[in-house]
DNA sequence: AATGAATGAGTGTTCATTCAT
DNA sequence: CATGAATGAACACTCATTCAT
């Protein structure tokens, strides 16, 4: 019976996907809490409640598993910037104020809903060395994606400047500054947060302040 | 002959110091290019062109060697901030402008003269987990020093605000933002620099721009 | 098929047990011929014809492997003494003669059936320093068990004295003397045996003589 | 000037001898408290308050240093037995009682005046393996000396039997039993002593009891 | 497809021994 | 002769990865 066969195949597919998801979830958990090198495959397997070789069924190497985590986040960042770029192209922004807020929101939201996602950005900045260890294919994928996001962000800023929303500032430098600011602040926050959990409340106010300062500094009034 | 003996002793001392320096240089090189965990003592020994046990003659553990690199930098940062604090106490600053420039200069100069030193700051922010792996004593030393620098920086900002040099902004949040900005920008710069060496020239202009923006944003006029 | 599955599972279990046994056998061999410190895990692995990490699959540390060898023997000794204590409580002994013979038999039999077992006792007496090197848990286990055996033996002697089977001698001192005698003689025997294998035949007659002398000296007639 | 020269040479010789003695003293201390393998040359040098290479000036290897310690003790034992043998030949013993007491005294005294010396006997019994590691020459020296002592002891017993001082017992077996008894008891004592120092007082009474029992068992009345 | 079990290739650290002075 | 300094060779233990089933 065709139908029966197909139903089985579907269930198998579903189970497989689910297994992959559980591996990724476990990997994310462990990688981001202990760092790439201190993380062992044993630990991921334990967390995912499966056996080690099963991980290898789906991910050729530890490297590949690691990068499987980075790409989606980088892509999500890209999508967010694309959304903003679209809004710009559509002339939806009437003030630089709103634009800057949208940009900040990408980070604030990701930090709040999925703090791990920002740690990806950290990793990306900190561990080029590690990225260099990945096998050429996965590495190229990540690197390309990162560059794309970078360039995209710059283009957004340039467009905003061209539209007179922001002051006339070198967009390359400004882009670097904003990326650096986001990455750096979240790192500092992160460090404090792990130590004094109650300081997490400062996070939002600090980011708000940063936003205000940046608006003061770059928005054309 | 006394003189001869002493000359020998001096040469020995010099050679010893030199050896320690060469170990530190090699360690710095390898640690900062590969990270603490990926770095092996074998590799440091190779780089320093000595045998592994010789390293252990001068540094009890990998930990100790590692922190021997961090502490001086953290201390240097502290000294710089203390210098600025003194200038503030002595009412040497007549404009917030100069203060911000001095603060930026701490980082710019250290980035230029000893780019590794900033990587220390990165490490400090990124790898609290790693720091937690150090043995309690060395760890306490580093952690204390880091906290001290952090608090010192905040005090400097607060004093500047009190003196009317900067706008009235929460000094804790501002301190976090500035640290984050410095750390983040240098990371971004660093990443680009390693990849496209010619981009190093952008560094200065980017930092200058950041400085200008911050001055616009926080200096009381 | 259930049966097939189960058969496989059973074989696996058997193989696993066998592997553990082969590790223990190899460890016993090497430990007792070279001593704890001179023994390397590599050598045990070689002797057991497996790889080093496999040993670590079954035994967490060298310590644990080592004590896995000692504990069973100490326990066996304990059981034997308990058997004799029971016989005493049940008033099964009508002469001290029989009791002493039973005591000697514990050692004679263990020396004959498992000469290594006595070497364990030697190790126990000789290397308190070594035992102090074991990790606290395993060490406590061994030390406790040893103390228990010691006290048990003394209690047995005291009971025999109380029942008028042995002369009225301080049971603590007597216990020490008998332990020392057993341990010492087997050591001497052992030494000779390794050197001139043909001397092994003297063993039994020597132990018999020791038994006779002790009977003469302590049994109440 | 001849005299002056010679005086210098003598002082040098004296200093050299003294240095050797201080090395031996330090070595004895450390070897017997930590065991051969756990002892490091560094530690001996530290204890002797000289530098490591200086030890190597006088002792080719760690092995040789170690065996330099054993030989004198074995020789001392030999001398004591020879003294007793002489007394026997001279028909100085009128009762086996005295003979046994003299034999025990060799051990009791050495245990009291120089407990280390007995540990040499232990080492000798326990570590044939170690002895096998020594270089052929030193090893032969020790082994020969040990065998000589052994045989000497047996001859003493045989003579005593022949003279009607002791019961007619196989002298080989008896010798083994007595050696074993001494070695074993001191080991047991030693173990207890290290743990509960106050138990050291039991030592003498235990050895006395052992002596009494042996007299009961083997002296011809 | 999933897994218990196995292992090659490292890691940091130690130590007997040897140089150079 | 004495020594500060150096090192080759080990050693316990780990981990990514692969078999056999």
Break the fold down into its secondary structure elements and pairings.
Four copies of one chain form a homotetramer.
Chain A lengths: L1 H33 L6 H8 L3 H7 L3 H28 L6 H18 L1 H12 L1 H6 L2 H27 L8 H25 L4 H19 L3
Helix pairs in contact in A: 1-2, 1-4, 4-5, 4-6, 4-8, 5-6, 5-10, 8-9, 9-10
Chain B binds a DNA duplex (21 and 21 nucleotides) through helix 1 and helix 3.
Rg of chain A, nearest Å: 20 Å
What is the H-and-E element order of chain A? HHHHHHHHHH
Classification by helices and strands of chain A? mainly alpha
Give the rounded overall mean pLDDT of chain A: 84
Shape of chain A from CA axes?
elongated
Low-confidence stretches of chain A: none
Give a verbal description of the structure.
Four copies of one chain form a homotetramer. Chain A folds into two domains: 1-59, Arc Repressor Mutant, subunit A (Orthogonal Bundle), CATH 1.10.10.60; 62-218, Tetracycline Repressor, domain 2, CATH 1.10.357.10. The first copy, chain A, is 83% helix and 0% strand. Chain A is built from ten helices and no strands. In chain A, helix 4 (62-89) runs antiparallel to helix 5, helix 4 (62-89) packs across helix 6 and helix 9 (171-195) packs antiparallel against helix 10. The first copy, chain A, is elongated. The termini of chain A are far apart. The mean pLDDT of chain A is 84. Chains in contact: A-B, C-D. Chain C binds chain D through residues 33-35, 37-38, 122, 125-130, 169-170, 172-174, 176-177, 179-189, 191-192, 194-195, 202, 205-206, 209-210, 213-214, 216-218, and chain D through 33-35, 37-38, 122, 125-130, 169-170, 172-174, 176-177, 179-189, 191-192, 194-195, 202, 205-206, 209-210, 213-214, 216-218. The structure holds a DNA duplex (21 and 21 nucleotides).
């Amino acid at each position: 019976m065709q139908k029966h066969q197909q139903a089985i195949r579907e269930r198998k597919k579903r189970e497989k996907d689910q297994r992959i998801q559980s591996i990724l979830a476990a990997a994310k958990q462990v990688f981001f809490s202990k760092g790439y090198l201190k993380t062992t495959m044993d630990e991921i397997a334990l967390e995912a409640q499966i056996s080690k070789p099963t991980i290898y069924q789906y991910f050729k190497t530890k490297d590949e598993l690691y990068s499987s985590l980075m790409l989606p986040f980088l892509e999500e960042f890209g999508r967010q910037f694309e959304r903003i770029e679209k809004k710009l192209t559509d002339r939806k922004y009437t003030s630089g104020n709103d634009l800057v807020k949208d940009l900040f929101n990408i980070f604030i939201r990701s930090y709040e809903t999925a703090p791990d996602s920002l740690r990806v950005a950290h990793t990306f900045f900190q561990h080029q060395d590690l990225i260099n260890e990945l096998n050429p294919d996965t590495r190229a994928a990540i690197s390309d994606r990162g560059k794309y996001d970078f360039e995209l962000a710059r283009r957004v800023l340039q467009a905003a400047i061209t539209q007179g929303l922001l002051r006339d500032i070198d967009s390359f430098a400004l882009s670097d500054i904003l990326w650096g600011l986001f990455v750096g602040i979240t790192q500092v926050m992160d460090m404090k947060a792990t130590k004094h959990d109650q300081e997490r409340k400062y996070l939002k106010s600090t980011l708000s302040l940063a936003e205000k300062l940046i608006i003061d500094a770059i928005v054309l009034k």
